């Protein structure tokens, strides 16, 4: 994918598209995912999805997916594709 970069973020390895984070392989296991904030509540109803908190604050548009939720290639692709689609929808950062 053109424009993909890797960067250490949030204790893991993040993949950015046009400078916008799509997904991160969490150092704690599982994934950290950047999604459309309007889809956050619906996605939290999926198995193994949890709200992402930073400094005690729940971040809309950000999810943690437990390692159990990304054990198969199909599971991983479903989550990664959501993060990639959202990152692509954002304006590229300088």
Provide a descriptive summary of the structure in words:
This protein has two helices and six strands, in the order ββββαββα. It is an alpha+beta fold. It has one domain: Yope Regulator, Chain: A (2-Layer Sandwich). The longest helix has 17 residues. The protein is globular and about 35 Å long. The two termini are 18 Å apart.
Shape: globular
Beta content comes to: 35-45%
The largest sheet, given as strand count, sense and whether it forms a barrel, is: 6 strands, antiparallel
Please give the order of strands in the largest beta sheet: 1-2-3-4-6-5
- The SSE order reads EEEEHEEH
Please write the CATH class name.
Alpha Beta
Any idea what the radius of gyration is?
A: 12 Å
Mean pLDDT across all amino acids? 94
The assigned structural class equals alpha+beta
**Percent of residues in helical segments?**
10-25%
Descriptive key words:
94 residues, globular, 39% strand, alpha+beta, single chain, 6-stranded antiparallel sheet
Q: Any chance you could write out the topology, listing elements then pairs?
A:
Blueprint: E1 4-9, E2 12-17, E3 20-25, E4 31-34, H1 40-44, E5 49-54, E6 57-65, H2 73-89
Antiparallel strand pairs: 1-2, 2-3, 3-4, 4-6, 5-6
